[in-house]
Amino acid sequence: MSDTLTEVQAVEKTVVEGTPAPAAGPVGAVKPAAADAAAAVVDAAADPAVDAAKSADAAKPVEAAKPVEAAPKAEKPKAAARTKSTAKKTRTVELTLTVTGTAEGEWQADLVHGTQRVVSGLVIPAIAVAKAAKELHEDIAEGIESVLEAARDQHRTRMEELEAELARVKAQLAELSE
To answer: Residue 145 and residue 139: Cα distance in Å, rounded?
Structure first.
């Protein structure tokens, strides 16, 4: 009986202090009726006239409680039947415009509608590409402008080379004419 009293006192401390009591059974066994058994044993120890059946019931080992099942998830109420929208559905059109350019400043365009090629290899002036890029977005315009500037620099260099060659040819022609 002294073992039961010790266990009851531990359960009382647990209930009062809110800390878990050391488990007398297997690790993780839950004893929800331990507090009731503890109260019966304490009452029996305080009053010897308590019915022997109560103290005998209280002294019996408490069986481990079955794990508590999680409450079933609350079902969401079904949404009211959706009414069909009277709004006009937007039809999307897939067009792919590919603009390619070379370092020399030659630009071409290809246009594809879905899987069908509409235009292929259409030559476009560089100024038209620059204007279109400015209309579309600043970042696109900056990217295309850098390509156009590189092409301009290349053409200026080539022009200077050709002007120098032209000057040599004119000088040679002048020597031959005299």
So the answer is: 10
**Cβ proximity of 8 and 44 under 8 Å:** no
SS3 58: helix
Contact criterion met (CB below 8 Å) for 111 and 96: yes
Q: Are 44 and 37 contacting, i.e. CB atoms less than 8 angstroms apart?
A: no
pLDDT digits (tens, 9 = 90+) for 33-43: 444 544 444 44
Helix then strand count (H, E) for the chain reads 5, 3
Indicate the residue type of 54.
K
| Residue 103, C-beta contacts closer than 8 angstroms, at least 6 positions apart | 147, 150, 151, 154
pTM (2 d.p.): 0.42
The model's pLDDT over 129-138, given as tens digits with 9 standing for 90+, comes to 999 999 999 9
